[in-house]
Amino acid sequence: APIYYSVLTINADGTGSEYRTTDTVILDPGDPNYVWLTDPALPGVGLRVLVKQAPEWKAAIEQTVYRVRQRSTPIVLADVRQSR
Known about the structure:
Shape: extended
Structural class: mainly beta
Radius of gyration: 22 Å
Largest sheet: 2 strands, antiparallel
Strand order of the largest sheet: 1-4
Helix content: under 10%
């Protein structure tokens, strides 16, 4: 997907500002079999690893859907799938 960044800088005394936009680039998502593994205790330490096999989830994710009157889309409350 194309992406670009816009930056607005304002002088501390308020006398001026500058607006810049980067060139648009298209990011290559890369190989979907590679993932970024992080350590919650040391978030600065990360490692790119190759996934050998996708997990076969045994338990379903807990999920509830609330359909609200006068609202076009439902409200969905869902659990998070994570390791233990």
